[in-house]
Amino acid sequence: xxxxxxxxxxxxxxxxxxxxxxxxxxxxxxxxxxxxxxxxxxxxxxxxxxxxxxxxxxxxxxxxxxxxxxxxxxxxxxxxxxxxxxxxxxxxxxxxxxxxxxxxxxxxxxxxxxxxxxxxxxxxxxxxxxxxxxxxxxxxxxxxxxxxxxxxxxxxxxxxxxxxxxxxxxxxxxxxxxxxxxxxxxxxxxxxxxxxxxxxxxxxxxxxxxxxxxxxxxxxxxxxxxxxxxxxxx
Length: 234
What we know:
Layout: H1 3-10, H2 15-37, E1 42-45, H3 52-58, E2 73-76, H4 84-92, E3 98-101, H5 102-112, E4 124-128, E5 132-136, E6 139-150, E7 153-166, E8 173-181, E9 184-185, H6 192-205, H7 208-217, E10 222-226, E11 229-233
Parallel strand pairs: 1-2
Antiparallel strand pairs: 3-11, 4-6, 5-6, 6-7, 7-8, 8-9, 10-11
């Protein structure tokens, strides 16, 4: 046996410790994620009458940026207001430009999205509540309660997504910048972020209500976002 081979055989190498270290890191990250997921984010109902101190905090909605990372806020607009049925008809008929208040989006969502758990669920499925919306400083906020079932075990968590609404050749699209389950930020690693987004959006994209609007929303070429409202143009 050559000296080189003898040395190679006698060295324990570093592959084993590296693999063990990576596995430990992944396990630790997973445990931390699910531990945080159990925490409840702070839900702020925008547009309600509140104490003066709360109103001062409300006047600057993105205050979560100045807090400790563990504090996660879900900004929601009023659950009713405006004439959501008239705005719904305008969308169905493609009457653009169209200004829609967050309160009208929320009223529409509560009226038309009712998702039931499947009679025979698979290993993984999600049952969401009707989403709630808000718009602030160019950021579109979405939040909804989720019942997540994995292998027969169900856990509830508040899902939060923040991002932008965009128009273009593909019509109206939501581009999330960050997502949370409970107080845990959904990691981009391992494709988990895309899988979760797909599971949540699939529930709504396959609904009869959404399907009725696909053609019209596909003509949206521009989206402007102001405080508490969006403006769709074709």
